[in-house]
Amino acid sequence: MDEPINSERNPKFLGVILDPGLRLHKYAENLRQRSVKRLNMLRSIGGLKWGVSPATKIVTYKSLIRSLIDYAPFAPLIMYEADKQILERIQLKALRYSYNLPQNSKAKEFYDKAEIENFL
């Protein structure tokens, strides 16, 4: 009964990793790691001349990756700008894979085509 309570610097509460400043940096890093694996799955289901349609890839993106990001809808509101940019890059990569657009395409093209909001 007289055991001390262990403290955790970055506790996990309902799937969200908290940090002392409540800026969710560790949570953003965890999202990035999990999303990269899912981005590879998205990339593997289609290429330029074969694979599923862009519409199917967008649905796959929304269900595999965007659902991770949207799980804590308040997170982008309080994250550091650099962490928001990490999420933004993940989303742009997924949209680029989905529509097979070149690297130098403008982000606005992605969002207009997919009808998805950006994080910034």
How is the secondary structure organized here?
Layout lengths: L11 E2 L2 E2 L7 H20 L9 H17 L4 H4 L2 H19 L7 H8 L6
Antiparallel strand pairs: 1-2
Helix pairs in contact: 1-2, 1-4, 2-4, 4-5
Question: Nutshell version of this structure?
Answer:
By secondary structure, the chain is mainly alpha-helical. The protein has helices spanning 25-44, 54-70, 75-78, 81-99, 107-114, and strands at residues 12-13, 16-17. It starts with 11 loop residues before the first strand and ends in a 6-residue tail after the last helix.
Structure notes:
- α1 packs parallel to α4 (81-99), α2 packs antiparallel against α4 and α4 (81-99) crosses α5.
- Helix content is 57%, strand content 3%.
- The protein is mainly alpha-helical.
- It has helices at 25-44, 54-70, 75-78, 81-99, 107-114; strands spanning 12-13, 16-17.
- The chain starts with 11 loop residues before the first strand and ends in a 6-residue tail after the last helix.
- It contains five helices and two strands.
- A hairpin with a 2-residue loop joins β1 (12-13) and β2 (16-17).
Can you tag this structure with a few keywords?
5 helices; two-stranded antiparallel sheet; 120 residues; mainly alpha
Beginning-to-end CA distance, first to last residue: 49 Å
What's the alpha carbon Rg, rounded to whole Å?
17 Å
Strands, total number: 2
Fraction of residues in H or I helices: 55-70%
Number of helices: 5
Class from helix and strand fractions: mainly alpha
Order of helices and strands: EEHHHHH
Main β-sheet, spatial strand arrangement: 1-2
Largest sheet: 2 strands, antiparallel
Query: For the residues shown, what is the average pLDDT?
Result: 88
Anisotropy-based shape: elongated
Low-confidence stretches: none
Approximately what portion of the residues adopt beta-strand conformation?
Answer: under 5%
